[in-house]
Specification:
Order of helices and strands: HEEEEEEEEEEEEEEEHEEEEEEEEHEE
Radius of gyration: 24 Å
Number of domains: 3
Strand content: 25-35%
Largest sheet: 6 strands, antiparallel
Number of helices: 3
């Protein structure tokens, strides 16, 4: 059985909430990747699928906080009620401490909050939403949320009641965090942000912390370093990122500010893939493939082969993933210098040929394949579960951009373990045909969410997966 590492040495060379019947075409709304408190989302936003000011459903038993007026005539409507159905709306409707249990995944991760939704709308609130990651068919626990806590004199509304430092004897003026201007540029590039600190009382700064408040779903972005005023991030996906700078003074006062980073591809066709979002101890290897035509051959890996994948198509082929990220970032920092295409589908080797920027072999992704200026024609997209590395089944999400705009997002799809090291029994998913029409594209799925076109690698090599089947079984 050949190994991927060995072959590489020889060749040298992706609507929040949930739905029991998720749509085949999804929108492009991203969600923050959050692990623990530091990466939680603040407040309700349009990204959560809940417009600001939307009241909670009317219920018969009040599980709210009674509002600022207590439990009398000014009491707020309840936000959950024991025995009510779960609505798949990012909140805990039935008061069981869980969010959207039993809801099918439609995105790799989404916001969640087990407390009163109003907690997230208060000005200067300390409360934050958490995140739920897709685990196979369903969302896992809500992780990283911040619920109301005892009020303290820090300039933050700790109990999330709409009042800041409402306990008396709070005479410290909190510091001011100073954020740099917003930035924009290409994905797969490094961006540096220089923050500042100001304190009216003259108190010294004792802490600076950068956090990711939101990012495209499945992003692994992280500030480096996270505990200084100046930090750098590697933006690994296309979309919007919001970073928060929090500073603290010697009296415990806290100041916050946010800055926006927007990334937009310069490629005509861009395909992003992530898997097992936010999973711990995932070193599984999932590979993306792009054929130059539907009837071309999968795994045709020569320098002019039919299939663009890790053997013949990646821009960076040595030095490990971290080094490759730095190399790709250097290319993308210069708008006049694009990474070279690696497979020559048409002579000469130029902007209508594909490239695989990064081959992620250690879990989560992302991987992406791009064509700067595609030729008119039909391309076929595939995904290969090369090796689970003892992780088990993987949940894969694919996102297709045409002309910089989202064309289609394929809901999280499970690839099962049937062999390792890219062997003949490993699973291969034929995702879609991408019909390039000149300036944009038409995406034609090759299966449905209930019946994706998945077959053994042996079958894919021999001519492709059989239409109308999944894992050898006819679709109904």
């Amino acid at each position: 059985m050949w190994s991927k590492a060995g072959v590489i040495g020889v060749v040298l060379a992706i609507g929040f909430g949930c739905d029991e019947n998720p749509p085949e075409v999804l929108d492009d709304q991203g969600v923050a990747r959050m692990t623990g408190q530091d990466l939680a989302l603040p407040g309700i936003s349009e990204d959560m699928g809940i417009p600001r000011g939307t009241p909670p459903p009317e219920m018969g038993v009040n599980m709210g906080d009674g509002g600022e007026g207590g439990a009398g005539g000014n009491a707020e409507p309840p936000f959950c009620m024991v025995g009510d159905p779960e609505l798949c709306d990012d909140f805990d409707n039935d008061c069981d401490g869980r969010v959207d249990e039993g809801c099918n995944c439609t995105l790799p991760e989404k916001p969640c909050y087990t407390g009163n939704p109003r907690d997230l709308e208060r000005e200067n609130t300390a409360c934050r939403a958490g995140v739920q990651s897709c685990r196979l068919e369903f969302y896992g626990p809500c992780e990283g949320e911040v619920l109301p806590s005892a009020e303290s004199c820090d300039g933050i509304d700790n109990d999330c009641n709409g009042l800041v430092d409402d306990i008396g004897d709070c005479d410290n003026t909190p510091p001011r965090a100073i954020c740099p201007p917003d930035q924009s540029g290409f994905p797969l590039a490094n961006y540096t942000f220089v923050g500042g600190y100001e304190d009216a009382d003259g108190d010294a700064m004792t802490r600076a912390t950068w956090r990711v408040l939101s990012a495209p779903a499945g992003s692994t972005v992280a500030p480096e370093p996270a505990d200084e005023l100046t930090m750098t991030v590697f933006a690994d996906l296309q979309g919007d990122y919001i970073f928060e700078l929090e500073v603290e003074d010697a009296q415990g006062g806290i100041g916050r500010c946010t800055v926006l980073l927007t990334t937009l591809t310069g490629d005509g066709l861009r395909i992003e893939m992530i898997w097992n979002a936010n999973a711990l101890d995932d070193s599984s290897d999932v590979d993306m493939h792009l054929k130059k035509a539907p009837q071309a051959r999968w795994f045709s890996a020569t320098a002019s082969g039919d299939d663009c994948f890790y053997l013949n198509c990646k821009v960076c082929s040595r030095g490990g993933e971290a080094a490759c990220r730095d190399e790709i970032a250097a290319y993308n920092a210069d708008p006049n210098r694009d990474p070279p295409p690696q497979v020559m589908w048409t002579e000469p080797l130029n902007e209508d040929d594909p490239r695989l920027d990064l081959d992620d072999v250690e879990g989560l992704g992302p991987e992406n394949i791009n064509i700067l200026r595609p030729s008119v024609g039909t391309y076929r997209l595939g995904v290969h579960y090369y090796d689970d590395d003892d992780f088990g089944p993987s949940t894969v999400t694919v996102k297709i951009f045409c002309g910089g705009e989202i064309a289609q997002v394929f809901a999280p799809t499970i690839l099962e373990v049937h062999g390792q090291n890219g062997g003949e029994t490993t699973e291969f998913w034929e995702v879609a045909d991408i019909v390039w029409e000149g300036e944009t594209c038409n995406v034609q799925p090759l299966g449905t969410p209930a019946c994706p076109r998945i077959c053994a690698t042996r079958e894919a090599r021999q001519g492709g997966c059989q239409p109308g089947t999944t894992r050898g079984r006819p679709c109904r």
